[in-house]
Specification:
The chain is α/β, with parallel strands linked by helices. 40% of the residues lie in helices and 30% in strands. Strands 1-2-3-4-5-6 form a 6-stranded mixed beta sheet, covered by helices on one side. Strand 3, helix 1 and strand 4 form a beta-alpha-beta unit. The longest helix has 26 residues. The N and C termini lie far apart (31 Å).
């Protein structure tokens, strides 16, 4: 399983998914021309990560401990991205069964009520521990 690092562009967020350093960050503008093409590999990566956690948990037994924090720092989400971020969060929700703890850190720019409300809406729809805070 390889880490993912995608540099942010004007239309796509930056992404760092690295299980070796426990770094999970997605942030920036999200209005890709093809959201499925952009988010598909990220969703697939979390599926593989969940399989890795399952193996790790079963291999290590009681010595296993994995606290996961995933940072979302979006500046903008278009309507298509909103759907794919929801799909991504649903995939992340599956990690709960193989993690000791799982927390979503949803950060929004000061005064960006839309992005704050997006985080609050995701938190209401999903069974994840969300911390929504201004940056």
């Amino acid at each position: 399983m390889q880490p993912i690092k995608i540099d942010a562009t004007e239309t796509t967020p930056g992404v760092v998914l690295d299980h070796t350093t426990d770094t999970f960050v997605i942030g920036g503008e999200s209005r890709p021309e093809n959201a499925r093409k952009f988010y598909g590999p990220i969703i697939e990566w979390f599926d593989k990560y969940n399989q890795f956690l399952y193996w790790l948990k079963n291999d290590k037994g009681d010595a296993y401990k994995k606290d996961i924090r995933i940072d979302f720092r979006f500046d903008y989400l278009n309507s298509t991205s909103i759907k794919f971020v929801y799909d991504l969060l649903k995939k992340i929700e599956e990690l709960k069964s193989n993690a000791t703890s799982l927390k979503i850190n949803w950060q929004y720019e000061s005064g960006d009520d839309d992005m704050k409300e997006s985080g609050e809406e995701y938190a209401r729809m999903l069974g994840l521990d969300f911390e929504i805070k201004e940056r």
